[in-house]
Specification:
Immunoglobulin-like; four-stranded antiparallel beta sheet; 36 strands; mainly beta; 2 domains; 487 residues
Length: 487
């Protein structure tokens, strides 16, 4: 009897200790040997949505949008000098105990810390110009924020959420992620062709890795601690480095125009890297061991951020120009479904056991106007009508106006172009310039403008209707029409 009571007390203590310990999984950003966590109604998928200034909250067990956390207003409300909300909600990270979500807003230079159980904002920290991403160190003591508009990592105390020090890096730090054991922090750059490796304990740069181009928006460290994957948006490539000293280059993959984000999923079939290709509306899947491409998935308009489930069986992808979350079977590498979410999702994270009890719907709001978009396509004037449209356009409803975002491909690399409204369906006639831009080395670009475009392109009176075009040259010296609106 004494032995039985002692056994029960020991078992109970062990169970309670397990409940209080941080919940990790054998997926990024955790260690490979940590146990997987099966998908449940306690888990949440979050997406940061930059035009509706919201964070969408999805139940992955039912693929149901539960609502959005509204951090700011749409235009023109957010143009007021008295405006106090967030602008360009963009980056996401979460604490190792899965109780706090860190949300970066580029336009308002802030990180909002949200309680995952209640969806309530606990604190807002304001930083330097244009922060991009934030993530907790694996021990949960610090939050590192890449301040992309400057040249440093802001290191915040996870207890007070206040900045305690800075780590100097090359100009334009894009994102940071940590080795699963917490020893290294990896920081790629969006303005300089180099990735910094930082000793976390000492806040000291110990190595510099050469990027094949200056524009890296995203990276991921494999859960076995052996690989570092990073994307190069401007040239359409992915580089893979050894994540351990001497950090040598393992391979460079040609992926495609507007290569956005990369993430890894580990499951019974192996470890796989998923790469979002905004210019092709695809996700490519690679074997992380051999670097062989295994699948190409058509997922929808402008795939951007992505994150695996905590058991590695699903990959969740934000579709920036479709206002949707794509759900991929990471065992079979196939698209399962899409879930409607807010406007222009950027970063996506999967947080297991985010809601310990209750339905987790507190403080959530419906999508509202964020559910309204209009999608258009531009086709090449040099190609047959049966070929894939090289440019897709989404008009994000803001109430009185729309944000226009064009995912442009099929242009000559590093050339000047003009997005404009033409008075005739063939793209000819008088032009009204909207945005001048230069194509990147892959002949692609993301182009934005604001105005009453829906009212113009859907004008009932044909004589007053206008048509989107891309022309070579500039507003002062426009050239020939390269792409025109598909009818």
């Amino acid at each position: 009897m004494i032995v039985t009571r002692l056994f029960l007390r020991t078992a109970l203590a062990t169970a309670l200790a397990g409940l209080s310990a941080p919940l990790l999984a054998g997926q990024v950003p955790g260690l490979l040997e940590a146990p997987d966590i099966p998908i449940s109604h306690r888990d949440r998928v979050y997406a940061a949505e930059q035009f509706s200034n919201t964070v969408s909250v999805t139940d992955p067990a039912s693929n149901e949008l539960l609502g959005v956390i509204r951090l700011g207003e749409t235009q023109p409300g957010n143009l007021s000098p008295l405006y106090r909300g967030q602008v360009l909600v963009h980056g996401l990270g979460f604490s190792p105990d899965h109780r706090t979500l860190a949300v970066v807003s580029i336009g308002s230079n802030s990180v909002s810390f949200i309680d995952t159980a209640t969806n309530a904002v606990r604190h807002v920290t304001y930083l330097g110009r244009a922060p991009h991403e934030a993530f907790y160190t694996p021990d949960g003591r610090e939050i590192w924020v890449t301040v992309r508009g400057e040249d440093y990592i802001a290191v915040l105390d996870a207890g007070t959420f206040e900045e305690k020090t800075r780590i100097r890096v090359p100009a334009g730090p894009g994102m940071q992620i940590f080795s699963p054991d917490g020893r290294y922090g990896y920081v790629c750059s969006s303005f300089s062709p180099q990735t910094s490796v930082i000793e976390v304990a000492e806040h000291r740069v110990v190595a510099t890795l050469p990027q094949a181009s200056p524009f890296c928006p995203n990276l991921a460290a494999s859960p076995d601690g052996r690989q570092l994957w990073l994307t190069l948006k401007d040239v359409g490539k992915v580089q893979v480095f050894d994540a351990r000293p001497p950090f040598h280059l393992l391979t460079t993959l040609d992926t495609g125009p507007i290569t956005n984000h990369v993430n890894l999923a580990h499951n019974a079939r192996g470890t796989f890297a998923y790469v979002t290709l905004g210019g092709l509306n695809q996700v490519k899947v690679f074997d992380a061991g051999t670097f062989e491409q295994l699948a190409t998935l058509d997922v929808g308009r402008l795939p951007h951020g992505l994150w695996p489930s905590a058991d590695g069986t699903r990959m969740y992808v934000g579709l920036e120009n479709a206002d949707a979350l794509a759900v991929i079977d990471a065992l079979e590498h196939r698209l399962l479904s899409t879930v409607p979410i807010g406007q222009a999702p950027q970063a996506v994270v999967y947080v297991p056991q985010a809601v310990p009890q209750g339905d987790g719907r507190a403080n959530l709001q419906p999508l509202g106007v964020a559910a309204e978009t209009l999608q258009l396509s531009l086709v090449s004037t040099q190609r047959g009508t049966g070929e894939r449209a090289p440019t897709t356009v989404t008009l994000f409803e803001q109430g009185l106006s729309q944000v226009l975002q064009a995912s442009v491909t099929g242009l000559e690399p590093k050339h000047p172009y003009l997005l404009a409204l033409a008075e005739r369906p063939d793209g000819e006639g008088a032009l009204q310039p909207l945005a001048a831009f230069n194509s990147n080395p892959a002949g692609a670009a993301i182009v934005n403008a604001v105005g009453p475009f829906r009212q113009v392109v859907q004008q009932p009176a044909e004589s007053q209707r206008r048509y989107l075009v891309i022309v070579a040259g500039s507003a002062s010296a426009p050239g020939r029409v390269i792409q025109r609106q598909a009818m």
